[in-house]
Amino acid sequence: MEMCGDDYVQRRPFDSYLYNQVVPDNPLYDLKLAINTVGSLVKASALKREMAKLAS
């Protein structure tokens, strides 16, 4: 859900739909998206471990 707030994530599908073609990628934005994705996965993993500690 965290990724849904990113402007780039929202704009790509919208522009592709609006122009009825795949919009060219921007490598820098793609790199930023990849880094944000990894960060979200790390946070989710940390939260899962903390929740497991609390449940014990």
List the defining traits of the structure above.
mainly alpha, elongated
Rg over CA atoms, rounded to whole Å, is 16 Å
- Level of helix content? over 70%
Strand count: 0
Q: How large is the count of helical segments?
A: 2
Shape: elongated
How much of the sequence lies in strands comes to: under 5%
The run of helices and strands is: HH
Outline the low-pLDDT stretches. none
Class by alpha and beta content: mainly alpha
Distance between the termini: 27 Å
User: Quick check: average pLDDT?
Assistant: 86
* Domain module count: 1
| Biggest β-sheet strands, sense, barrel | none
Give your account of this protein's structure:
There is one protein chain. The model has no long low-confidence stretch (mean pLDDT 86). Helix content is 75%, strand content 0%. It is mainly alpha-helical and 56 residues long. It is elongated, with a radius of gyration of 16 Å. The relative contact order is 0.12. The chain contains two helices and no strands. The longest helix is centred in the last third of the chain and has 29 residues, at 27-55. It has one domain (2-55).
Topology (SSEs and partners):
Blueprint: H1 7-19, H2 27-55
Brief overview:
The protein is mostly helical.
